[in-house]
Design brief:
2 domains; TPR repeat; mainly alpha; 338 residues; repeat; TPR-like_helical_dom_sf
Length: 338
């Protein structure tokens, strides 16, 4: 027995335990990303960051994955942290952030960061892409920038507010959303979208009259305000006043926004109002990477598809939405418009 145990001990001493390194996790993350297995890629990259928090390459690559799946706020948060921790030598972060801001529709921020990149990059990897982005931003007229005609020093705070409010709105935590949006409006009074999101949360928290009155006041100041028309159309439809809603829906027929989230809002409203063919056309031109994190995309697109004679695609989209948003499975399927 003694001899046998001694042999076993000797054999165990020859076994070299495998200790995965940060680079091991990073390599697996890159492989998953290349295969478009984004959830796995995020998991591996997070492990790499945990194993070596002082390597800026890992959060930068993770930000690229977030950009690919449309999580632009999360991507920019990572890039901001890299710049804060490792300094301005990582100038590529500026271009990546500019690209994310452009996707979000925050065009002034996009322009500021792309100009910073071009000033500091020398002959950088993204020079050509950055010049093209700047040319595109310069070509936009002032009207297209109406919601972005401001710049904040506390951009990180704004991103946190946006992400927090978005989370509560998506999960129908109306009281929490109202609280966050109230603070957001105090700190960033020129960020107009927060006001309309506030009215949306106010309506669904029970103060329907107050929400409608707010939107009416804002619409008097700007008769072409897309957000007001979208909200009022939705409010009236939910209250069972299709005639009142149609006044605002008719305006949206002639509106073709540049920002992806506004495009989604118009498509959703047309579907809610029963204009399914028009809604399907609007849904089809959306950049999916920017809308797949929105529950309303799956719900109202599938409903529009079902009512335009494409039930199989509608059901496929609905099931995909239920997978991403389990709460959606508690609602009626695409065969219902409620």
């Amino acid at each position: 027995m003694t001899t046998s145990n001694s042999s076993a001990v000797k054999e165990n001493k020859n076994v070299i335990p495998f200790m995965p390194t940060a680079n091991f996790y990073f390599s697996h993350g890159i492989q998953a990303f290349q295969k478009r297995r984004f959830k796995a890629a995020v998991k591996w990259l997070n492990k790499a960051i945990e194993a070596d928090p002082d390597e800026p390459l890992y959060p930068c690559q993770l930000s690229v994955i977030y950009t690919e799946v449309g999580s632009y706020h999360a991507a920019n948060q990572l890039l901001t942290e890299v710049l804060a921790k490792f300094g301005k030598e990582y100038v590529d972060c500026y271009y990546l952030m500019a690209n994310n801001y452009a996707h979000l529709g925050l065009l002034n921020d996009a322009k500021k960061y792309v100009e910073t990149y071009l000033e500091q990059s020398g002959d950088g990897e993204f020079d050509e892409a950055a010049k093209q982005l700047l040319e595109m931003l310069d070509s936009l007229d002032d009207e297209s920038l109406e919601d972005d005609d401001w710049a904040f020093e506390d951009e990180d705070d704004l991103l946190v507010y946006q992400e927090t409010a978005f989370y509560h709105l998506e999960h129908e935590h109306w009281d929490q959303a109202l609280s966050v949006l109230e603070e957001m409006m105090q700190h960033f009074p020129e960020f107009l979208l927060a006001k309309h999101k506030y009215a949306y949360a106010l309506f669904h928290s029970g103060d329907k009259h107050g929400a409608i009155e707010l939107e009416k006041q804002w619409l008097k100041k700007n008769h072409t305000n897309i957000h007001s028309h979208v909200n009022l159309a939705g409010f009236y439809l939910e209250q069972g006043f299709p005639e009142k809603a149609e006044i605002h829906v008719n305006v949206l027929f002639n509106v073709f926004p540049m920002h992806e989230q506004q495009k989604l809002a118009v498509a959703e409203t047309l579907s809610r109002a029963g204009h399914y063919e028009e809604a399907v056309e609007r849904f089809r031109i959306l950049d999916q990477k920017q809308v797949i994190q929105r529950r309303v995309y799956y719900k109202w697109y599938s409903i529009a598809l079902y009512h335009t004679g494409n039930p199989s695609k509608a059901l496929q989209l609905w099931e995909k939405g239920c997978h991403s948003f389990p709460k959606l499975g508690e609602e009626d399927g695409p065969w219902s418009d409620k």
